[in-house]
Amino acid sequence: MKPKFSISAGIILLLIPYISHSADFLVQPPPLSMDKFYSERGKTSEWIEQMRQISKTLGATLLSMDKKNWGEALKNAQDFGSAYKKAAKMIPEWKDLFDLEASELFIASIQSQDTENIKQFSGKVKKTCTQCHRKNNISVWARYHWPSTQTIKVLDPIDEQEVDYDRFMHRLSSSFKNIEILFGQEKYNEFWKAIDIFSKRLRGLRSVCSKCHVTEWTKNSPSVKDFFVGEDMIDALQEIKKTYASGAPDAKLFKKKMEYISEQSCKMCHLIHQPAAMIQRAWGN
Length: 285
Ligand code: HEC
Ligand code: HEC
Ligand code: HEC
What we know:
The chain has helices at residues 46-66, 70-90, 100-111, 115-145, 165-184, 188-204, 206-212, 231-245, 251-283; strands at 6-7, 26-27, 153-156, 161-164. By secondary structure, the chain is mostly helical. It has two domains: 6-145; 149-283. Helix 4 (115-145) packs across helix 9 (251-283), helix 6 packs antiparallel against helix 8 (231-245) and helix 8 packs antiparallel against helix 9 (251-283). Residues 1-19 have low confidence and may be disordered. One heme C is lined by residues 145-147, 149, 152, 205-206, 208-209, 211-213, 224-225, 227-229, 272-273.
């Protein structure tokens, strides 16, 4: 079975409570009532806190049962029951994706130490976790974990104008293509100039990383900016310049270095950053 990935553009569809076929899988915006749990950037969402709570209490329940500590298991199961119930109330649009009856029966089966029922109802409860995650996590990530590129402006170092991110990409792209075209046309002076223009734009892109990557991994290197727009790209461009310096153009080295930039900068960065931007565009926000 081939998974199908389709995006519904701004259409608000009725929630389908049980997803059984991949054809039903749509990346639609999460319910608006979720916004309030993600209102503070940089702070862990209250929804995530609640998820961690139900995950922890469920884990603790299973662990105490393994140790045949039934008293402790019941207490943990009750904690799980209330955390699960609380989560079910947080987003009204999703209340049907929880199975509160199964969670009550799960607790009751622990109280009566009925292993058959424990198995059945814990299975039912866990299924709700997986089903909801598979159906909704991508939407939630695209909406709350990916800042939008559409509010970002980039200073184009060539004309010193601030342009939209997307517009800047098209400029970056055409200055990259120009290098290849001019190499083919053997227009030596313009070729060098094109490399400088592209090089400036690629460096210019470094200033946008911090609009989303607000905290660096560590105080010391490496920094995010070592990826896709790092010194290795500038070095590759220097090498490209050299392909012409000796008089006869070195087409093989030229191709190799251009491919390096295309794969390690453009492609890699697109693979990471573009899906979220595409989903957001499809939603029209
Ligand atoms: C109705 C939907 C729904 C149900 C049911 C649900 N979850 Fe979640 N859960 C989510 C969403 C959405 C996220 C992603 C939140 C995010 O990344 O911002 C999530 C994230 C999580 C996370 C990751 C938290 C983190 O640290 O990032 C855990 C763990 C988790 N859920 C556990 C569970 C367990 C265990 C159950 C079942 C007992 C469950 N969830 C049921 C929607 C649901
Ligand atoms: C529109 C927002 C946005 C911009 C602009 C952006 N990123 Fe990201 N990037 C993200 C998000 C969100 C992730 C997912 C993981 C995370 O939050 O760090 C990510 C992930 C990454 C990763 C994968 C590993 C990691 O640390 O998260 C790298 C590497 C990366 N970005 C580099 C860059 C570089 C270099 C730039 C600038 C040239 C850049 N990004 C610009 C939002 C952005
Ligand atoms: C910092 C990461 C990053 C780097 C590096 C990067 N891009 Fe992009 N690019 C993006 C993102 C994100 C988008 C989507 C922007 C949006 O939709 O708002 C994009 C969009 C584009 C688009 C528009 C695509 C379309 O279909 O509209 C083109 C063309 C493009 N990039 C070309 C390039 C080229 C060529 C390079 C390398 C020389 C490159 N990009 C390097 C992140 C990057």
